[in-house]
Design goal:
Blueprint (H helix, E strand, L loop, with lengths): L2 E2 L5 E3 L4 E19 L11 E2 L5 E2 L2 E2 L5 E9 L9 E7 L17 E6 L4 E6 L8 E10 L2 E11 L2 H8 L5 H18 L96 H43 L6 H40 L27 E8 L8 E6 L5 E5 L6 H4 L3 H22 L5 E7 L5 H10 L9 H24 L14 E9 L5 H13 L5 E7 L12 H6 E4 L4 E5 L6 E5 L9 H17 L1
Helix pairs in contact: 1-2, 3-4, 6-7, 6-11, 8-9
């Protein structure tokens, strides 16, 4: 039975291998400190945080998230550690609350590896604090206990670290928050919650013994929609939505690869995948949620597989060390038998982990095969037949496809990378030579051409998914070097004006968009949105910047940074095509610009991270099929719809 703790209350821990689950309803940074008997932390090397997520016996999340899972193995902690403090802090620049009192109270639970909840604590009574010590696990007379702490700090992470005896806490806090910012910059933004924070579901359902294993910190899945009424309908007068939740995706703890335990009964055959089998009011919303469910499933099952393999390797090393440390077993039959047994256990663990991974991947492949053909134009690949029946939409979709993502465990299983509309961040197509093998095989000129081709494909899709006249595209091509790649946009007539060239053209376009941002901001602050100048284009605006910083002076660079920071809030977005090295003369001045943009590449590169465990995902940019005229056909329809609307 779960112990519901109040502040200061403690509870014994029956297990030494645990999971600590955090649910906050908004992004928080989670970490731990390892302290001695007095709770003092010896140094920075005893802190687990997003920039340094692993310590002996501790694994924490690599980025800020609304939900966390922290893996703890108390037996693996150094003997000098007597206290493990669980820390939560609000990240800077995440767009969330600046104090815990402005949001739902964080919920923290300590669970066994099978998902059974041991103790939980809802951290109430917080107000202006931006950091809090949530729980502490402490050793007393050889046994471990958990205590609900709930100690908040108005001074934030720096004050909390200083209170634990660390030197230079402000510098350390700044370094941790900077690591969080870097993680957020490379992370695919998670979808919005499907239920209000006040209705948050605590995920504590157990899994079978055959599915328990060492875990890494991953977040629980989104809560399912309310259950349907009789015959799958909505109960009269109650307004409850139909539950389209996938039968494999419940609120239970995720399955993980096995560790040594009695084998469970054979599982039932997996359900036959169905396109749109997820929560949502429309088919597009259900497909969007289903794709995100597949993305999360693949991230978590891969994390569990890697964790189980790491555990098997670690245990093999420990058992071999024990054999070698005993002079009596280093030679002779006893030592050989012990080594053989250790390797057999290792092979069994990894084989069972591979079996679980193969089972889950096969189900996801089957699901992908039915979901991909059902995707609407905004979510579909450019080679999808849906584009052959394309018509300019009457309303804006909830998201669009930016490319594909995959992991090395199954490179042919591609998950569509969907981002919400309107854009919350600008895009940066990196035309520089990255670390990927694909970019190493291309020369600099080819990389730059592919980068602009990729940007044009992104812009064309944005134009295609918005209603006629609701999306305007501007282009800066100061040197005029991108005319071949820009031809589909120019020749179709979908641009607001011909690409601006030269320093004068760059200055004029930036001045126009900067003025638009200023006017809309003033109108919104004054509550007079209808007071905008007559004839001002109220459509969403996209500025494609090619060959930055060519043609830019200091004033233009400042205006570009302003558009990147303030533009998305009022419908002005950036699509940069640039090599960061070309702008190296500006030094750290442009670091905030690059961090504010979502970096994508013109060739395959493993630089993006998921919002759960931070895997390095390989991003595949959108590709127009060789010999296909689909891009020009779609843009021609967009241009014609605009002409019809203007008559």
């Amino acid at each position: 039975m779960t112990a519901e703790l109040v502040r200061g209350q403690n509870h014994p821990l029956p297990d030494t291998r645990l999971e600590i689950r955090v649910s906050a309803g908004h992004p928080v940074v989670a970490g731990t400190t390892l302290g001695d008997e007095r709770g003092r932390v010896a140094g920075v090397e005893w802190i687990a945080h997003p920039g340094s997520p692993s310590l002996p016996g501790i694994e924490v999340s690599q980025q800020a998230a609304a939900d966390h899972r922290l893996a703890v193995d108390l037996e693996a902690l150094p003997d000098s550690v007597h206290r493990v403090s669980v820390l939560l802090a609000l990240p800077v620049g995440a767009g969330g609350p600046s104090r815990f009192g402005a949001a739902a109270a964080p919920f923290v639970a300590v669970t066994a590896l099978d998902g059974t909840e041991i103790a939980s604590y809802t951290i109430t009574g917080l107000d202006s604090e931006s950091a809090v010590v949530a729980l502490e696990l402490y050793r007393r007379q050889g046994a471990w206990k958990v205590r609900a702490v709930g100690q908040g700090y108005e001074g934030g992470l720096a004050a909390m670290l200083g209170d634990q005896g660390l030197e230079s806490p402000a510098e350390l806090a700044a370094a941790i928050l900077e690591a969080v910012v870097r993680g957020m910059a490379r992370s695919v933004a998670s979808p919005p919650p499907r239920v209000p924070d006040a209705e948050r579901v605590r995920h504590s359902a157990p899994v079978t013994a055959a599915d328990t294993a060492p875990t890494v910190p991953v977040t629980p899945p989104p809560a399912p929609a309310p259950s349907p009424g009789p015959a799958g309908g909505t109960p009269s007068g109650q307004g409850a939505p139909i539950d389209y939740a996938h039968p494999r995706r419940s609120a239970a703890a995720p399955q993980s690869p096995p560790q040594p335990a009695p084998r469970a009964e054979p599982q039932q055959s997996p359900p036959v995948p169905v396109a749109g089998d997820a929560a949502g009011w429309s088919m597009d919303e259900r497909l969007y949620n289903q794709v995100w469910g597949m993305f999360e499933d693949l991230a978590r099952t891969t994390a569990a597989y890697r964790s189980a393999c790491d555990f098997a390797e670690s245990r093999l090393d420990q058992e071999l060390d024990r054999v070698l440390s005993d002079p009596r077993s280093r030679i002779g039959g006893t030592g050989d038998a012990a080594r053989t047994e250790a390797r057999a256990k290792h092979d069994e663990l990894t084989a069972r982990a591979q079996e679980a991974l193969d089972r889950d991947l096969a189900q996801l492949v089957a699901e992908s095969e039915v979901v991909e053909p059902a995707l609407p134009a905004a979510f579909a690949r450019w080679d999808s037949p849906v584009w052959q029946g394309y018509r300019v939409p009457m309303e804006t979709p909830m998201a669009l496809r930016l490319g594909d993502l995959h992991l090395p465990e199954r490179t042919d299983l591609h998950i569509p990378m969907l981002i919400r509309l309107p854009l919350e961040r600008g895009l940066w197509v990196d035309s520089g030579r990255g670390r990927s093998e694909a970019s190493a095989l291309l020369d600099e000129a080819e990389l730059r051409r592919l980068a602009l081709d990729t940007a044009v494909a992104h812009a064309a899709r944005l134009l295609a998914v918005y209603p006629a006249g609701d999306f305007t595209v501007h282009v800066l091509d100061a040197a005029g070097s991108g005319s071949a790649s820009l031809a589909p946009l120019v020749e179709s007539g979908v641009l607001a004006a011909p690409p601006a060239a030269g320093a004068a053209g760059v200055s004029a376009v930036l001045a126009q968009l900067t003025e638009r941002v200023d006017l809309v901001q003033m109108a919104v602050r004054a509550g007079a949105a209808d007071a905008l100048p007559p004839g001002m284009d109220t459509a969403e605006q996209l500025l494609i910047v090619h060959d930055f910083p060519h043609g830019f002076d200091d004033r233009a660079v400042t205006q570009l940074r302003y558009l990147a920071d303030e533009g998305p809030r009022v419908g002005v977005h950036l699509l940069m095509v640039a090599d960061r090295e070309d702008a190296s003369a500006y030094g750290p001045l442009l670091d905030p610009l690059w961090r504010s943009l979502l970096r994508v590449t013109p060739v395959a590169d493993d630089h993006l991270a998921d919002p759960w465990v931070g895997h390095a995902w390989t991003y595949e940019p959108p590709r127009i099929p060789v010999g296909s005229d689909v891009l020009r056909q779609v843009l021609a329809q967009v241009a014609e719809a605009r002409r019809q609307g203007w008559r």
